[in-house]
Amino acid sequence: MKRKVLSVILTGAMVAGLAGTVTVHAEEQKTYNIGICQLVQHEALDAATEGFKDAVKEGLGEENVTFDEQNAQGDSATCSTIVNNFVSSNVDLILANATASLQAAAAGTSEIPILGTAVTEYGVALDLTDFDGPVGGNISGTSDLAPLDQQAAMLNELFPDAKNVGLLYCSAEPNSQYQVDTVKAALEDLGYTCEYYAFSDSNDISSVVTNAVADSDVIYVPTDNTAASNTELINNICLPAKVPVIAGEEGICSGCGVATLSISYYDLGKATGEMAVKILKDGEDISTMPIEYAPNFTKEYNADICEELGIEVPDDYVAIGADAE
Predict the structure, then answer these.
(1) CA 214 to chain centre
(2) Residues 209/230, Cβ–Cβ less than 8 Å
């Protein structure tokens, strides 16, 4: 009888141990499906997406995560379609890359965690009153907002004798309106006269830039997705007219600008990916996570355009692409 009891006990222990092994194995093999909605393809947003994916793979294990990566090709309505598909697929988390993607995601689900990146101002993007940190609900993320007063100071440092500044931006992007309004106030405090030059989409950029060039000594272009997708067109009008462009971010500056106070979008995306790991792996409550901002900003210049326009920049500016060479 004692032998039978001992046998039963040992067998039960083995089964329990095996069950525990299966449970641990199952936890190790947990996989996550993340939907990525990127508004448009251009250098800054591409870098943010890559940084996000690298951080997530590092934190969750490359074999444990799949990405459903979709690009809306600049169409806000397509962002909504993409998000609706993510919701139908019941993805574990949505990365909303750029403002229109964030707005579509916020409208599409209140349950699935949403992280924004390359979004300039969450209060403006989501029409929040007295926004001061966490968005709340199922939304958080990172902001690409550079200190706008310092961008205005950069323009003043490089072009102290200029009088008229054209503010060139897409009127369909609320974050762009926020930026030019803020920069306008800072530039007017410095003694400049500023004029808005707003285009509604890619179709009227050419005519609007032509008008801006005719009446401006310098043009300021904020962090603007439509402008970023049309830098060659902007440059082909501004450069022959010898009107310099101060840009809100590196990608625009590399295409048509002379200088920018910019961030690393790869690092911004990576910070967003680290937030995703905290939510998915560590169980952190997204509703309490404040929006994170880039810690470092770099004065950069476009060496080719500066040379063509005869612009000399101070020693504390770094040539775009110099770190990669």
Answers:
(1) 32
(2) no
